[in-house]
């Protein structure tokens, strides 16, 4: 069984969803430490021809808070969700398919979220449904795996019965202990993602790496075909 493991993101990008779709099971790594200036509570959209951040405000109670314990800051009298929706509506006013998703997105963003992890999961489910990604999900907080970095990832693989980890080329490449994985009988497959190009509203040039909403708003029902027509080159690396 192939498993992919990644921290929750707000409005995930295409590579996140593409890797999820290649796995038999996706583990949402939500019981590790929240990282400021990461993608756990923010992501980028295209606004007036530039990449701009949309950030969910969060409460800072401790520097060691886990993602699952991170609370959304709802104290501002201007609801952040309504601001995000208005920003998206303005940014994608010329996108041909924004209206197709506006209703469901409005319901999601205007709901009152207490925990960031629940908001991220709802946004992920929205994108999974839109792109017809059926890979089962499990939260790491629902499992009993412990440890740090490579040990934790390996223990998660063991707990769910995976024989292959589909890993990205981000930070995990620097810390995964391939020999330990090999001794445990778990292979490591590296997922390289080639970002697809597609028509984007607004002035050129094309901006890659944005939230997956950008593809949906611009390409609508063709989004899934565009995403999975891109060439990925998974490489099997012997973990020994």
Q: Number of helical segments?
A: 9
Indicate the overall shape. Answer: globular
Count of distinct strands: 8
User: Overall mean pLDDT score?
Assistant: 93
Order of helices and strands: EHEEEHHHEHEHHEHHE
Brief summary:
This protein has 240 residues and is an alpha/beta fold.
Report on the architecture of this protein:
- A hairpin with a 2-residue loop joins β3 and β4.
- The chain has 240 residues and is α/β, with parallel strands linked by helices.
- It has helices spanning 14-22, 80-91, 98-109, 116-131, 149-160, 172-175, 178-183, 213-219, 223-229, and strands at residues 2-6, 25-28, 42-47, 50-55, 137-139, 164-167, 187-190, 235-237.
- Residues 232-240 have low confidence and may be disordered.
- Helix content is 35%, strand content 15%.
- The protein is built from 9 helices and 8 strands.
- The two termini are 18 Å apart.
- The radius of gyration is 18 Å and the shape is globular.
- The strands form 2 sheets. A 6-stranded mixed β-sheet has the order 5-2-1-6-7-8, sandwiched between helices. Strands 3-4 form a two-stranded antiparallel sheet.
- α2 packs antiparallel against α3.
Could you give the topology of this structure?
Elements: E1 2-6, H1 14-22, E2 25-28, E3 42-47, E4 50-55, H2 80-91, H3 98-109, H4 116-131, E5 137-139, H5 149-160, E6 164-167, H6 172-175, H7 178-183, E7 187-190, H8 213-219, H9 223-229, E8 235-237
Parallel strand pairs: 1-2, 1-6, 2-5, 6-7
Antiparallel strand pairs: 3-4, 7-8
Helix pairs in contact: 2-3
List its traits:
240 residues; alpha/beta; six-stranded mixed β-sheet; two-stranded antiparallel ribbon; 9 helices; globular; disordered C terminus
